[in-house]
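Feature request, filed as a ticket because there's no other form

It would be nice if the structure record came with a short human-readable summary line next to the tokens. Right now we just get the raw output. Example of a typical job, pasted below so the devs can see what we mean:
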Amino acid sequence: MHFLPVEIVKEASLARPMPAADNQIEIELASGHRMRISGGYDPEALARLIRGLTA
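Raw output as currently delivered:
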């Protein structure tokens, strides 16, 4: 099992665009929380993490 670093941040203002970054994704969960992942990641591990957070 692998764990990925996760950062929980306050709601960002929509007036500020997110800076572009290589290999970075941002996922907004139904709860309103957002996950930002930078660098390489295992898609299956990420899917398990998201399922665990939304259960």
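Something like this underneath would help us a lot:
The CA atoms of residues 23 and 31 lie 24 Å apart.
The first strand starts at residue 24 and ends at 28.
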